[in-house]
Amino acid sequence: MTVRNWAGNHSYAGTLVSPASLDEAADVVARSRRVRAIGSRHSFNDIADSEQALVSLDALAYRHPDITQHGSDAPEGISPVVPAGPEPELDPTTGRVRVAGATRYADLVRFLEERGRTLANLASLPHLAVAGALATGTHGSGAGNPILGAAATGLEILTANGSLRTLTRDTDGDAFDGAVVSLGALGLVTAVTLETVPAFDVAQTVYGPARFEDVIDGFEEVSALGYSVSLFTTLRGQVFDTVWLKQAYDPATTVPATILGAPAYPEKVHPIPGVDPGNCTDQLGVPGPAGDRLPHFRADQLPSAGEEIQSEYLIPRARAREALLALDGLAGVIAGLVQTCEVRSIAADGAWLSPMHERDCVAVHFTFVRDAAAVGAVLPLLEATFGALDGVPHWGKVFDADPARLRARYPRRRDFLELMRDFDPQGTFTNDFLRRWVL
User: Fold this and answer.
1) Left, alpha or beta for 307 (phi > 0: left; psi -120 to 50: alpha)?
2) What's the pLDDT tens digit per position in 398-422?
3) Locate the FAD-binding PCMH-type domain: which residues (predicted)?
4) For 22-31, what is each residue's pLDDT tens digit?
5) What's the whole-model pTM score?
6) Fold of 201-401
């Protein structure tokens, strides 16, 4: 059976194995020469490919009973329903929650919000599995919001000999920072413990269009307007079609009438102009739980466009103006391939292999049409353009970088290689992706 990612642009190498328990998973790992974990299948490259066993731990994931689940006829982008794993464990004293790594963020935040808690940050897609999002350095948006992995305080990892190792931020400090963004190289992350915060509401308002030159001049101010801010452009005109402002809701908070002269849209819109916005989260300034507003897309619907290929570069925030000017300069070459391009901000973190390692960043994210050859042809241009600004690609998107440049950009890379040797001395979890970009 061919196993594809959610967007259909990549077929995974390896034989899919779906153990029904941790014991079964340990047995698969212990008797396999090569193993990789496969999660919600939202990466666009070969990061999860395996030379032998491709292990899915979906059977251990928690599924919230009130979130629509789909059977074997699930549309692309929606995980098929599987037997539900145990409920997350919320510690009322610390506010930390332990959850199976294969659990989707949508299911976890619904569980938390029913208990008066939530997560401080979410990606634009709530469909992602927790462990996979952490392993690839996935992020949301907001000048004060670091990667999703910054909330992690504990990792339980099934290692190559079939034993379980636990790392915590409290006891393992530096090594824990090495393990959060692991690219799947240390083992199968079976459970994660995360910090939570008191539940809060968010109101989302979308503005546009805003002139490109005004965004370049006012990016710092616009980025600071809300808890999370995203800007979208098709690059087919000198405008950002939409500016998505997500504010922590307070009845006393004033919602801007305009942003950079752009008014609020009077009806719901999609990041891709002309696409039905029914799969987007509620807008028009209507407040709702953070878990239903911080993502751009609804958990029970196909995210984004569906048929697409994504690429993203993370550039030091100090060079945001240069990055936006460079993006404008690319328009004539790549606009025909771009469905939409999102620009957002991410705060620095301490994870060794995070693109935001010890630096605030601006993200330039491309949602391309699903034409692998055409997109592949422009990837060197993206590398030349944003690599020159000290930008690095998102680990889970498509890119064509200089391996030596990429390795040199991560000052703790050699420490990570030592961590790999400690956890996986025989290279059971190594694959071509790791050999190409990390080893």
Assistant:
1) beta
2) 999 999 999 999 999 999 999 999 9
3) 9-199
4) 999 999 999 9
5) 0.95
6) Alpha-Beta Plaits (3.30.70)
